[in-house]
Amino acid sequence: MLNKLIFANLTHRPVRTLLSVLAIAVEVTMILTLVGVSHGTLDSTKDRAKSVGADIMVRPEGSSVMSSLNSAPMSDKYLGLAMQQPHVVAVTGTVVFATTFPDSITGLDFAAFKNMSGGFRYIKGGDPVNTDDMVVDENYAQQHHLHIGSKIKLLAHMWNISGIAEGGKLARVCVKLKTLQDLQGTPGHLSLIWVKLDDSNLADQVAEQLKGALNDSQIYSINELMDAYSISNVGMLKDFIWVVIAVATIVGFIVVFMAMYTAVLERTREIGIIKAVGGSSGLVLSILLRETLLLAILGTMVGILFTYGTQWLMKHSVPASLVQETVYIWWLYAGGIAIVGAMLGAIVPGMKAVQQDVTEALSYE
Amino acid sequence: MNEGTVVAEAMGAKTGSGEPMIRVRGLTKVYHVGDVEVNALRGVDLEVARGEFVAIVGASGSGKSTLFHILGGLTPPTAGTVVIDGKDLGGMSNQQRTNLRKTTVGFVFQKYNLLPTLSAEDNIKIVEYIGGRSTSFTPEFEEVLKLLGILDRMKHKPRALSGGQQQRVAIARGIVNKPAILLADEPTGNLDSQNSAAVLGVIKDLNQRTGQTILMITHDPEAAAYASRTVHIRDGRIV
């Protein structure tokens, strides 16, 4: 019976109900989209690194796994030194320079890369032939409307698209190693070194050996690298997520507070009627809280649906820049956050309803 | 057994006890409006027998609505004794007065006070729910709805009912939990003369057929004439 009253109350003011649900939905969408993009971006980076087929990655001294690269301080002599280590069967180096955030351009030795990973799987075209040739992945090509033969200006240099490859391998934008080294004034130097072993199980052991051979470079086994690619290792991102959650919760709180406060004012007489016929303060509070809970649950469901909308939007408008994953466990967290925020917003209006004098409420016009 | 007896039993009317249903002794009520003290009731004495239909008649400001609120457990008395169906209202907590409204008193208000979002049927059933009773109408209660002439209007929301029909739904709501007393505050105050006569006829019929104790507050002598006894109130005193 009470549920009937709650549904009736919500449908009696459809616009207010709709706006409340939408506001909570936006709150949930904000949280889920940010978390989805964070996870998606990290996971796609992780997948691209894994697909290289290396067992060890060498980064410059002083860099961390999560810091972006925009220099090439390591000598390419390291390639030879690494190759001399036992169990090392292949070595290749890359240079990475940032273009427009969050994109970067990678220079690589296509032959060595093919030897290590099997190379790119091309949808159209193939490896660079000329100095200015560039290979992009399908997502980058879609986002920037590139085709074979298209021209694109990056790092103040005009490039020619020679190949469009399947996504998910090493990098989205690749050019010849030497071209990029010369262009950036770092001939003979590298940003990253990838090392392949005859036995992947020996990665930790060989990594230790390399630490001795390659001075103070940062050396990670691929397994270490995969573990390190997590949101908790990106301090700023973690803080940003919490800020967005806090803002979203406050928005949900304010909207529900306003909606329920107005509802209590509008329903002063009805609350008086319920109390007059023996409804306790607990019952009145329960009606308001259940209404709020229903709004929060509906808002969460709509918010989850909206998240698929943002996912579709990113996939079709900026597939190379932003990758949004569906992180199912966060449906529960976001729902919980929305419900807690909404319940907090309903407390003050609820207390106002509870404290209303019956005789005054019944004479309310 | 006649129809009236059947309905009376269905409504759980208590008959045959010598104890009055309502006993009021030396009842006073003082309101504070800002710094001003308002003596709304100044020592009211009143007894209403079980099964009686009493009209309290008084002009505006005579204290009749305050008496209604106190008897209904909507507001506490300042001093004096109020006993309803053996329950002493003196010193009752808010929760105890809530329970009194749930189990012992039924209300009919001047402005009907039906919940606008619910149908007539649900307006009655929500009171059954609050009273902790089953929310399906018994055949006997359906007889009462027939008596009130609203059985075929149960699915309608208040806005689709005339004032007279709304007031009859309010009467049905007031008696559905078989209260010891039904308190009616100016039940015809918002009705035209034709609907007033119909509603008052129904209240009187209900009293006669079911033995429901009814106390009606009114300023209208014509309405009071339907009651079996009339009590006058002026300046917070029974006269």
Question: What proportion of the residues of chain B form beta strands (DSSP E)?
Answer: 25-35%
Integer average pLDDT of chain A: 87
Number of domains of chain A: 2
Number of strands of chain B: 10
Percent of residues in β-strands of chain A: 15-25%
- What is the tally of helical segments of chain A? 13
Give me the oligomer status: heterodimer
Shape of chain B: globular
Low-confidence stretches of chain B: 1-16
The ordered string of helix (H) and strand (E) elements of chain A is HHEEHEEHEEHEEEHEEHEHHHHHH
Largest interface: A-B, 25 and 29 residues
Overall mean pLDDT of chain B stands at 86
Brief description of this entry?
The complex is a heterodimer of chains A (365) and B (239). Chain A is of the alpha+beta class and 365 residues long.
Topology:
The complex is a heterodimer of chains A (365) and B (239).
Chain A: H1 2-12, H2 14-50, E1 56-59, E2 74-75, H3 77-83, E3 88-98, E4 104-108, H4 110-117, E5 122-125, E6 133-137, H5 138-143, E7 151-154, E8 157-165, E9 173-176, H6 177-183, E10 189-190, E11 192-197, H7 203-213, E12 218-221, H8 222-228, H9 235-266, H10 268-276, H11 281-317, H12 329-355, H13 358-362
Parallel strand pairs in A: 4-9, 6-8
Antiparallel strand pairs in A: 1-11, 1-12, 2-10, 3-4, 3-11, 5-8, 6-9, 7-8
Helix pairs in contact in A: 1-11, 2-9, 2-11, 2-12, 9-12, 11-12
Chain B: H1 3-10, E1 22-33, E2 36-48, E3 53-57, H2 64-71, E4 79-84, E5 87-88, H3 94-103, E6 105-108, H4 120-130, H5 139-148, H6 163-175, E7 181-185, H7 193-210, E8 213-218, H8 221-224, E9 229-234, E10 237-238
Parallel strand pairs in B: 3-8, 3-9, 6-7, 7-8
Antiparallel strand pairs in B: 1-2, 1-4, 4-5, 9-10
Helix pairs in contact in B: 4-6, 6-7
Describe the protein's architecture and organization.
The complex is a heterodimer of chains A (365) and B (239). By secondary structure, chain A is of the alpha+beta class. Chain A has two domains: 2-43 and 234-362, no CATH class; 67-228, no CATH class. Chain A contains 13 helices and twelve strands. Chain A has helices spanning 2-12, 14-50, 77-83, 110-117, 138-143, 177-183, 203-213, 222-228, 235-266, 268-276, 281-317, 329-355, 358-362; strands spanning 56-59, 74-75, 88-98, 104-108, 122-125, 133-137, 151-154, 157-165, 173-176, 189-190, 192-197, 218-221. In chain A, strands 1, 3, 4, 5, 6, 7, 8, 9, 11 and 12 form a ten-stranded mixed β-sheet that branches. In chain A, a hairpin with a 2-residue loop joins strand 7 and strand 8 (157-165). In chain A, helix 1 crosses helix 11 (281-317) and helix 11 (281-317) packs antiparallel against helix 12 (329-355). Chain A is elongated and about 90 Å long. Chain B is an alpha/beta fold and 239 residues long. Chain B is 34% helix and 26% strand. Chain B is built from eight helices and ten strands. Chain B has a six-stranded mixed β-sheet. In chain B, strands 2-1-4-5 form a four-stranded antiparallel β-sheet, with helices on one face. In chain B, strand 1 (22-33) and strand 2 form a beta hairpin. At the A-B interface, helix 1, helix 10 and helix 13 of A face helix 3 and helix 4 of B.
